[in-house]
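Hi F.,

I've been meaning to write this up properly since the lab meeting, where we talked about keeping a consistent format for the predictions we share between groups. The idea is simple: the sequence comes first, exactly as it goes in, then the structure tokens exactly as they come out, then a line or two of notes. No screenshots and no reformatting. I'm using this chain as the first example so we have something concrete to point to.
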Amino acid sequence: MWNIRAELDDLRSSDLERRVRALSHVHGVEGRLDGRRVLIFCSNDYLGLADDPEVTSAFLAGARSYGVGSGASHLVSGHRPVHDELAGALADWLRRDRVLLFSTGYMANQGVISTLVGSGDVVHEDRLNHASLLDGGLLARGRMRRYPHADMAALGAALQRPARRHLVATDGVFSMDGDLAPVAEIGTLARRHGAAVLVDDAHGLGVLGREGRGVLDQAGLGQDDVPLLVGTLGKAFGTFGAFVAGPDDWIELLQQRARSHIYTTAPPPALAAATLTSLERVRADDWRRQHLIDLIRRFRLGADKLGLRLMPSSTPIQPLLVGESADALRASAALEERGILVTAIRPPTVPAGTARLRITLSAAHEQTQVDRLLAALDDIRPLLQGGGRHARNNITCERADTTPEP
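Output, unedited:
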């Protein structure tokens, strides 16, 4: 017998119930929540482009030219010249043969992995990978094996086991911890064992590397080292959608077989027009990345002076370990009372005992706003003393999700 109410009651009693709350009057990093003005420190708009006037104007002009919807999938009648223009511009920026557009990053990862991994193949995934990568592995007809977070010895041993083909899939920047995947070491292991590599750099593109080309550029890796690069457009780009970039033949195969590309409506062409303008800003505006670096340094220095338990991250993702879910919720509510919006992240997104405040910084923030955040954290320090009681000796412990391993 189905007892949905009991499942909902269990989530509530375990402090794991999630709520959707509507932010209004959002401009840059400020908005209103339940009638109260708040300063937002939990957005992925890392470069402050979601509210950029040039990007907004490009979107409005695109809507006037193309309408607000594409009307069909890319392979039916939903594809427009502006989609080709965006794909070509992204490929040129990333120095890759070709780009295929997807509606979301989730659909991109599911489509790529489930298309490429067939019977007799193995996909190897970091245990802290995003759910979209894990779900892509579950959808594939091959086998998924998960290695301990960033454990290259474990990955190397797994790649020695017999299989028709091996694919290694990893986040570039891990979204809940803010640390970087050891992509250079992964590339070396892949070459040694004849494996292919997929990197989802959703949180690195736009922020890291030359012209914001992400973790692979920062590590000096190209298409020959990592054939498949997945990126999203709803974070540093400030728009919406996703893509996969790689060798021409690989992208052609995905266009022919990736179900999440073939059987869904194409992204609105107006969004493609806005993203073209956003890409120009990503490439040219090094000042945004430098300002972001300065803000990260300022925040970490201030947090260290307060004795706060930050996780080791050099990215805009600055997780502050709290411990139990109830404690993280109380800390988040206390910050909100002081006009600071930071969401509490709880299991199963993170391991039990490592609930946290996932603080994110944006180039749209000012130094005085970071100081305001630090002052608010200082006010609520008694609520932050748990610091992950079950993870004191292993901050980057494996995520306690419920995804089975086939």
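Notes:
The domain at 53-284 is CATH 3.40.640.10 (Aspartate Aminotransferase; domain 2).
The longest strand covers residues 317-323.

If this format works for you, I'll send the rest the same way.

G.
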